[in-house]
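Subject: for your reference before the review

Hello V.,

The reviewers asked for a structural picture of the protein, and I figured it would be easier to keep everything in one thread rather than splitting it across files. Below is the amino acid sequence we used in the manuscript, unchanged from the supplementary table.
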Amino acid sequence: MDQTVTEKAIDLIVKFWHKPATGVLAPLILGLLLLLVTASTGLIIPVRDEPLWVTILGWIIVVIPVLAVIILWIFSNRYPRAPKGKLGLVIAISVQNPEKEKQIRSDFVDRLKELLQRNNSQTQFHVMIVENHIAETIKDSKAADMLANKTNSAFVLWGYVGLRQVRRGDSRHYFSIGAIVRYRKASEDVNAEIGKDFRIVVPEKILPDLENEVIVFEATSEMLALGASYIIALASMVNGNLVYSETLLQLVQQKRNALNSRGEITSYIDNKLPIRFANLYTSWHNELVRQYTITREDGLLPELERISDHVSIFAPNHFNAHLTKAICAFKLRKDIAEARRHISKIRSLKVKDGTWLLSAAFLDAYAGNLQKARKEYSRAFAAKTKYEDSTVFTQAEEFIAQVIQEEPQKTNLWFCLGLINFFGKNDYHAAKADFQRFLDQTIESAETSKYRKEASELIKHCNQRIQQMMLVDVT
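And here is what came back from the structure prediction:
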């Protein structure tokens, strides 16, 4: 009888332990009980001639257990937090069937955590499971966002496992799921894309039609782990953490290959992964190109070439990737033939942007074929040739200037610089200086005679344009 009462008391305490009222009443009741016990033994109320230390001991016996209960309640009801350097993921899924709560949390919730924590050295996930009573309070995205703040998390998977009757005497579990992921502000198009992916890979309702609950929980946890990893990879991409996004997308691909099942979610991910890889590597390529354009740091080129190779795999007709690969082939290996193959690929794509013409002309001039180079430059400077980037002529000038600095014997390149400054930038002072260097550093020959003559003529035009500009300034 006493054992039954004790067990019921313990169950009651466990059931209501998380309540704020318990945090107040439990130490208060314990303190009163201890006061009664110690008072009855004379420890609290001093007896005549009794030493002071006896009274102090009595109060210690009362105060220490009360403080211990308060501290225990505070620490046991704290929200978990993701440590610094880890990506916090919270699972806040409650179970509506009390009789099967332990089993479902073990077979489904704990399994979901285990799947998300696989490859943790790469993903850096810190997965946290909140208690059932906390999960029950997360009913919308606003509450999930507050939970994310409390736990220092980037992703919250919330919802519940319910029970539905499919026919008389037969009921099955179903899943109501919600999720939020945090990422920096993006364009409406990007938000719409992620939102669409979110709705499909993390569905609001999952209604399994299998009777075997073990298989149902396993399949659902695998599917949600896959969907969560996919969404976090997209959020990381938007946040600019491209290396991490690549790692996650590769792991999603590996997990997908390991799964035998094929449903709406896995089929959607199968179709979307190549597109997302293309998005990732294109963004990465563009960022590296931006850095290289600013710094002209050749140390960026090996990584730039690697990323360009990936872009070409997932977006074979991405002309900027071929343009970058041509630059890398030239700068890293001085492989003119390889660089020309990439330029030929761009030529076959019939792109409207004329940047590749400047690259083709440069390669011809570098190889000593000024005749062919001049034809390509004529096409590049033609009025009908359009450029997406208004700084392309400045970039071409800086690139050639760097090559001349490294290989001053390539004197033909001064002629190229003169053409770019004259026709592309209308910088007649710079063009005049470039053409003069070409004349000073080249000798008269069958190959250079025509272009030395053109350089001389263009210097005269530079002088005329400079004088005209001076007159305009005076007036």
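For the response letter, the relevant points are probably these. DSSP finds 20 helices and five strands in the chain. The first helix runs from residue 2 to 16.

Happy to draft the paragraph if you're swamped.

O.
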